[in-house]
């Protein structure tokens, strides 16, 4: 589904055309070209079509998108990193976030959701959050440089690190993002983790790390975490 990392752009567009049949027309999509930042962006009508047909028209240098306008499909791409979909149907507002370890260290999830709560676009008690496939705790191995950055965060990260040697540890990226949501007042029952591990569930997921291990292809596929506000639901 991603144009910025693919071997066959035409094949990606064919996949997108298949998905538009089940969602909304491709010319009403607005997509990001993520760069592992902590930046978020409000998508409006002026952004319709960005990144839909050409990666070079994507919304650049942001890793989270949100919108309050109906009939605009927003989304992010992941292939080991964590993809997050948050929405509040009472507002309505929908948000998609891309957070690998770099994004998590920068607290992109916390910053984005806190902003939306402050603007009263999301209300903790009515916000639902879903996580896409990612490297789970037992598969996300990190080195000392990353460990140091995680430990320097302004929150308790001890439960989310499991040392495996003097210089390496396993990291619960999904768990730390869940904690950020809880810290913002979102109830645990409104948070829906994923059990898919991209390094182990190779038949059903894409993994950048596994792809590099196999050295079979220069690029791998990516999951598409997307959402939109259905205009029909607003009239119900």
TrEMBL record:
<dbReference type="Pfam" id="PF02578">
    <property type="entry name" value="Cu-oxidase_4"/>
</dbReference>
<dbReference type="InterPro" id="IPR003730">
    <property type="entry name" value="Cu_polyphenol_OxRdtase"/>
</dbReference>
<keyword id="KW-0378">Hydrolase</keyword>
<keyword id="KW-0479">Metal-binding</keyword>
<comment type="function">
    <text>Purine nucleoside enzyme that catalyzes the phosphorolysis of adenosine and inosine nucleosides, yielding D-ribose 1-phosphate and the respective free bases, adenine and hypoxanthine. Also catalyzes the phosphorolysis of S-methyl-5'-thioadenosine into adenine and S-methyl-5-thio-alpha-D-ribose 1-phosphate. Also has adenosine deaminase activity.</text>
</comment>
<dbReference type="InterPro" id="IPR011324">
    <property type="entry name" value="Cytotoxic_necrot_fac-like_cat"/>
</dbReference>
<comment type="similarity">
    <text>Belongs to the purine nucleoside phosphorylase YfiH/LACC1 family.</text>
</comment>
<keyword id="KW-0862">Zinc</keyword>
<protein>
    <submittedName>
        <fullName>Laccase domain-containing protein</fullName>
    </submittedName>
</protein>
<keyword id="KW-0808">Transferase</keyword>
<dbReference type="InterPro" id="IPR038371">
    <property type="entry name" value="Cu_polyphenol_OxRdtase_sf"/>
</dbReference>
